[in-house]
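Can you please make up a whole protein chain along with its backbone structure tokens because I've never seen that pairing?
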Amino acid sequence: MATLSYNGDGKLVDAAQSHLQKSIVHIDAPLGVHVQVMRWANYINVRITMAPRKGGQDGTCGNFNGNADDDSVAAIQARGAYRVAPNELLFHTATPAKPMPDVHCPPGKKAAARATCLKERPEVKEGPLLDACIKDVCIGGPRYAARDGVAESEG
């Protein structure tokens, strides 16, 4: 059984929205899972927190082993971890997974996005966090560079 609440209390996924009024749906689900859905004007952010499961775990967000390098989309898909057995679903229905759209980023724009990401997050030299930042900046613009690496690495 889950409980729901709605208020302005919670830790944001990225600080870029901290100046706005917060509208957050909280879901306290079984197994100590807490889901925060932050509602903004034209999109949502979601933060999922939980304790490690005895015997390990794996899923769409990674395997909770503290190594972000094996939590890329490709690594998760290679492990088949994006599929949840029906008897392990937290909710009664599942939405079928769809591949991410392949968004083309021209070489010049990609190089500029990489430079922006490295400037904003100099400690992230290579790997899935840098790749995710480059993709986000190519699609959404430079304002996504600083928050991308932070949000994904905070777990």
Summary: The radius of gyration is 17 Å. Residues 107-120 form the longest helix (14 residues). The chain has a mean pLDDT of 80. Helices lie at 73-79, 107-120, 128-140, 145-154.
